[in-house]
Design goal:
Elements lengths: L3 E7 L6 H11 L12 E6 L15 H13 L3 E4 L10 H11 L1 H8 L2 E2 L5 E5 L8 E5 H5 L2 E11 L3 E3 L1 H4 L8 H8 L3 H15 L3 E12 L6 E12 L2 H12 L7 H9 L9 E4 L3 H4 L12 H7 L3 H12 L2 E4 L9 H5 L5 E4 L4 E4 L9 H5 L5 E4 L2 H6 L1
Parallel strand pairs: 1-11, 2-3, 2-7, 3-4, 7-9
Antiparallel strand pairs: 1-10, 5-6, 7-8, 9-10, 12-15, 13-14
Helix pairs in contact: 1-2, 2-4, 8-10, 12-13
Length: 386
């Protein structure tokens, strides 16, 4: 059986990020293994929205800077690019994103570029299962290769955000809303992000788990958690499998893993992975809090009947977004990002309101709200079972 390698390195704080990244990539054969002289290399961090590094919402600039320096030393030109969720793909929006997240300063120190060009390109996805073509941000289409710099975070829709989910960021701005609308459930959306990962084909995937996020991530409702870990692999799936094991994410709560199995992709089991630098036991993060809609407690209770119970319980246990009027400032971010157009602004303070009948439960509003004003509420049956 072919083994996919995932490399782990301790990194207690971001002051040690450069030395830890250098050691990690060195154990993988050096950046020369992934970059040839003269190549233009896309560095794809997770930049969900303009948020400071200490929020744990975005990949930390110290990690991106370290990788950019290695790309330059290998003779390549690093281009840092991403597209925030729920925002128009405009130069000013992108410039603010890079400034707020620390990417602009990191790029300057490393001799890299940040891409503020809002141009998009329509590309073919020959290996796509649900997508045959898509409009992607120009840097993704024009680079010679890509390095996936993801963040270790929970995700209320997909269980976790990792290397595969990070590839969704090549879809520009508000175009993301359309994909959530046309592929509203977990299984369909997992196929979308796998198609985009197959297209981008990152040569190297490196996960920032120094300051991770637990709880109801991936946005402001998540909780930063000091983990002190970097993970790397040349396989996005392998990296995500290792991260899921570290977080304690059950297989049934990992739709990307389930979609990969349906496609016959590898790896889809930890037995297919050789973990370098630590053990599976040491990798596990104690008491890591998963999203509140991960039904691991009910599934554990059902035991052998978990498969049947999962199908019967999904409708009863699903959570619905609700707005906390005390926190809502009427910014309209949730309304603009809603694929189902289920959110309106009403009242003297222009407070957001969710139409539960129109809600497709993609949780984009919860993900992007900068004020933690979107709560996820379950049914009475859910509370009883918990």
């Amino acid at each position: 059986m072919e083994k996919y390698r995932v490399y782990a390195a301790s990194c207690p704080d971001y002051g040690q990020a450069e030395s830890a990244v250098r050691a990690l990539v060195g154990r993988m054969g050096g950046m020369e293994r992934f970059v040839k002289p003269g190549e233009r290399i896309l560095l794809k961090p997770n930049l969900l929205r303009p948020a400071p590094p200490e929020s744990a919402i975005c990949t930390h600039p110290a990690v991106v800077e370290a990788v950019a320096k290695l790309v330059a030393e290998a003779g390549g030109q690093a281009v840092i690019a991403d597209s925030p969720g729920g925002a128009l793909q405009r130069e000013g929006v992108l410039r603010a994103l890079y400034e707020k997240t620390g990417m602009a300063a990191a790029a300057e120190r490393a001799g890299a570029q940040v891409c503020t060009d809002p141009a998009v390109r329509r590309v073919a996805l020959p290996r796509g299962r649900v997508l045959r073509q898509a409009e992607v941000a120009a840097p993704a289409a024009e680079a010679d290769g890509a390095i996936d710099l993801c963040k270790m975070k929970t995700h209320v829709l997909m269980g976790m955000t990792g290397a595969v989910k990070n590839c969704f960021g090549i879809i520009p701005g508000l175009s993301k809303v359309g994909f959530h609308s046309s592929h509203p459930n977990q299984a369909q959306f997992a196929d979308v992000v796998l198609d985009l990962t197959e297209y981008l084909s990152p040569r190297l995937c490196l996960m920032d788990g120094v300051l991770a996020m637990e709880g109801n991530g991936p946005g402001a409702s998540g909780t930063p958690r000091q983990v002190g870990l970097l993970l790397a692999s040349d396989s996005a799936l392998a990296l995500d499998l290792a991260a899921a094991a570290a977080m304690g994410l059950p297989e049934e709560a990992n739709p990307v893993l389930q979609a990969a199995r349906r496609r016959g992709l590898s790896p889809v089991r930890t037995e297919e992975i050789e973990l370098v630098g630590t053990s599976w036991e040491a990798l596990r993060i104690p008491d890591f809090r998963l999203p509140s809609n991960v039904k691991q407690d009910l599934m554990d209770f059902l035991g052998p009947l978990a498969g049947l119970g999962r199908r019967l319980s999904n409708a009863a246990l699903v959570q619905t977004p609700r707005i906390d009027p005390a926190r809502c400032v009427g910014c309209g971010v949730c309304r603009d990002a809603c694929p189902g157009r289920a959110i309106s602004m009403s009242g003297p303070r222009a407070t957001a309101k969710v139409d539960r009948r129109a809600c497709i439960r993609c949780y984009c509003c919860h993900e992007l709200c900068p004020r933690q004003a979107v709560e996820l509420k379950g049914s009475r049956l859910r509370k009883l079972l918990r």
